[in-house]
Amino acid sequence: MFPINELNGMILFPGNTQSNASGASNAGLSRLLSLVMVLQLSGFTVTALAQDTQDLVWGKVIQIYDGDTIAIKSDRNKVIRVQLAYVDAPDKDPKTGKTQPLHDESLKTLKDMIIGKEVIIESMGTDKFKRIVGIIFLDKLNINAEMVRKGMAEIYYPVRMNPSRYNENYVNLLKTAESQAKNSKTGIWDHPGYVSPYKFRRGSK
Q: What is the pLDDT along the chain (205 residues), one digit of tens a residue?
């Protein structure tokens, strides 16, 4: 997503107050790689490591828009919007204000987990709104999968329909998390007639 020379000091290091210090940037990069190593040793997949961290973004979570959209801030006060990849949370119709069941609860669940925290994001690219689409990690916790496991989000409909087009490891992880939520009737799965946010948005047009 971003070349390494752009990541250093711009996105990865929210705690760095030096504007042009390669030593601080190198220290930040070392910390990032250490965190990635911890994730890998703990059994979590961070596929971007094979691309020399160019798809990894690091920042402090400053805002939660809903259950699958956040904003982070870099050390240079650059605000970056991030869409949680492969998942879809209960949505809101921007025209009528109508919300799906558990919309507010989903937002609160995500907020309680990551607001004010430093996270690693494995970027899968950007969407049409120029948001980074990625897998969010808080220490060893895959936040995308955790939202699904808690029944506060589901697998994004296009991913569900064409899983082979997406990262197999993450898709399988999300399938397991969703099965757990469904079997225990957790969150959205305890609401009869609940429709996917994907279909809700199309029905609201």
A: 322 223 332 223 333 323 333 343 444 455 555 555 555 544 445 554 434 456 888 899 999 999 999 999 976 688 999 999 999 999 999 889 999 999 999 999 999 999 999 999 999 999 999 999 999 999 989 999 999 999 999 999 999 999 999 999 999 999 999 999 999 999 999 998 899 999 999 886 5
CB-based contact 86:133 (threshold 8 Å): no
Report the DSSP pairing between strands 132-138 and 79-84: parallel
In three-state form (DSSP H/G/I as H, E/B as E, the rest C), the secondary structure along the chain is CCCHHHHCCCCCCCCCCCCCCHHHHHHHHHHHHHHHHHHHHCCCCCHHHHHCCCCEEEEEEEEEEECCEEEEECCCCCEEEEEECCEECCCECCCCCCECCCHHHHHHHHHHHHCCCEEEEEEEEECCCCCEEEEEEECCEEHHHHHHHCCCCEECHHHHHCHHHCCHHHHHHHHHHHHHHHHCCCHHHHCCCCCCHHHHHHHCC
For residue 195, the Cα-to-chain-centroid distance in whole angstroms is: 22
What is the Cα–Cα distance from 178 to 87, expressed in whole angstroms? 10
Distance between CA atoms of residues 196 and 52, nearest Å: 36
Ordered by where they begin, the domains of the chain are 4-203 (2.40.50.90)
